[in-house]
Design the sequence.
């Protein structure tokens, strides 16, 4: 199916938890170590010394032989809270569904008080964002154990901005999930914001090619959320065509998805007209 508004689109170092880094706004707290949980205990516990806007990314597999409770709790209300998670025996499926739900979530105020049943060998993947108030404490726990079993990584800013220029003479490429200084490997949980400026008026084509294994894209543009099918590694697939004006940036926001291996190579090119291509 082809739709048209402005475009045509084809869809189908680690730190011990009890010695946390200083708290700054817009921090990303990355919870994924160990990715497979074989013991119960505390994954993350942090008391906030000031009102702080933060984002949590978490992605864990229940590696025990029993079902376990995965809990997330705060004492106070979190302002402008956005939370989404998904559970599956396929880690990539849990990741992509959680990211899409997060992008669609409307912020609200609420205390975190989740006790989630996580079946043996299943993966939970999710995101939490909001303003945690001064002296509040957040706790992530797996099962009933009280021992600290998790290690986190703290990234100072979850907004990663990149500027890309594209013209009608050659393709411009960006590798989503490539290593970035002072950022989590794979860029997982970050807003990867691409400001793509065309040097010519015309039709801009966006294509992608998974490089670390099979992959897919979920992204936001102009307030709309789009996602592709899961595609095999190294092949190249057209995502959309966008009518662009010279010098007017097009802004796309990605959040790399838990369960997939990055990078994914994005290709931008400008054409006089929409190319005739076969799509399955």
Sequence:
């Amino acid at each position: 199916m082809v739709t048209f508004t402005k475009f045509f689109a084809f869809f189908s170092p680690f730190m011990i938890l009890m010695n946390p880094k200083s708290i700054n706004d817009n921090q990303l707290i990355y919870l994924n170590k160990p990715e497979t949980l074989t013991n119960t205990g505390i994954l993350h516990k942090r008391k906030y010394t000031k009102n702080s806007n933060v984002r949590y990314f978490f992605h864990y597999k229940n590696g025990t032989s029993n079902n376990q409770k995965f809990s997330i709790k705060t004492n106070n209300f979190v302002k402008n809270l956005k939370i989404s998670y998904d559970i599956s025996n396929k880690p990539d499926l849990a990741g992509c569904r959680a990211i899409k739900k997060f992008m669609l979530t409307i912020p609200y105020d609420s205390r975190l008080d989740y006790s989630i049943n996580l079946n043996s060998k299943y993966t939970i993947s999710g995101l939490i964002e909001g303003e945690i108030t001064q002296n509040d404490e957040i706790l992530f726990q797996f099962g009933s154990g009280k021992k600290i079993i998790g290690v986190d990584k703290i990234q100072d800013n979850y907004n990663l901005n990149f500027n890309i220029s594209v013209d009608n003479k050659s393709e411009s490429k960006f590798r989503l999930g490539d290593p970035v200084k002072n950022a989590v490997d794979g860029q997982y949980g970050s807003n990867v914001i691409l400001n793509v400026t065309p040097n010519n008026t015309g039709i801009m084509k966006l294509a992608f090619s998974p490089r670390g294994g099979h992959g897919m894209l979920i992204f936001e543009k102009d307030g709309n959320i789009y996602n592709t099918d899961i595609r095999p590694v190294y092949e190249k697939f057209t995502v959309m065509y966008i009518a662009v004006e010279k010098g007017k940036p097009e802004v796309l926001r990605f959040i790399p998805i838990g369960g997939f291996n990055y990078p994914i190579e994005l290709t931008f090119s400008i054409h006089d007209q929409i190319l005739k291509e076969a799509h399955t």
